[in-house]
Model the fold of this input.
Amino acid sequence: MKELQFARHRRLRQTANLRAMVRETHLHVEDFIYPVFVVEGEKKKNEVASMPGVYQLSLDYLIEDLAEAVDLGIKSVIVFGVPNEKDEVGSQAYHDHGIVQKAIRKIKETFPDLVVIADTCLCQYTSHGHCGIVEEGKILNDPTLDLLAKTAVSQAKAGADIIAPSNMMDGFVAAIRYALDEAGFTHVPIMSYAVKYASAFYGPFRDAAHSSPKFGDRKTYQMDPANRLEAFREAESDTLEGADFLMVKPALSYLDIIRDLKNHFHLPIVAYNVSGEYSMVKAAAQNGWIDEKAVVLEMLTSMKRAGADLILTYFAKDVARWLKE
Ligand code: PBG
Done:
């Protein structure tokens, strides 16, 4: 008689402790970057309609919120400014007393050890909502680089620990690295949004940051979601230009790209779990259709399993809380 032969995978799944012993991927509070939106004024706490639990905060409330985050063990925060005034060239982005510069100064004064990351882009600050200078309906690459470099230097002057350029102009890492070095900030790292797709998952963020383009879309600078080799080209040039971290954005529909970058580059890989990914989970959870905590932990674990070293997520505080339980 022929004997039935097969592997007994279930041997290692029998008890919770056994499963814990062979678990390959773990989440730590150090993995998470907490995004915040800061507005002018006092005592402002505006919930973003499409992002329940996410607020635009004035500086006073922002500090309270960050005290809680620090208490939960969160090590880093990325600051998005929502300015009162916008113009054609986004001048509030590089004003020494712009909303982000004020926020960075205050955060570093209050929490010197918290790693403060500055998002370096123009779309929240331009009247047309594009990430660069616009002329006759076109987004100009090289003239935009000067403004980005100025923005990065003003953020570093305010005390930013990391500069995170997100606008997808060609050469932004080179331009920012050069300007930072010239201004004496050779020690300030660049976290490049190297691989950023023109994604429909950014919708809720644009409500939060008031940064929707007033005409057209971002497809001439952000990447086509259908492309993989282009991600290698972007990551390669940013690495050569001096990036210290490579980001992939969004995360959930791009886990293959995260793995590709992890396998081929030797810089820390950051996954941006974007607004639309957050809002989908929130909406389903509010309807009682999914278990929010279980789904979020599964999603974030999958990003780490795919190769992310760090995850930028609106769930950062929730996860920090859950990891403590
Ligand atoms: C652009 C920027 C975007 C996001 C952050 N900064 C994308 C965009 O509007 O094109 C999206 C983040 C999110 O969806 O959470 N500088």
User: Anything to note?
Assistant: The CA atoms of residues 228 and 257 lie 7 Å apart. The domain at 28-324 is CATH 3.20.20.70 (TIM Barrel). The longest strand covers residues 32-39.
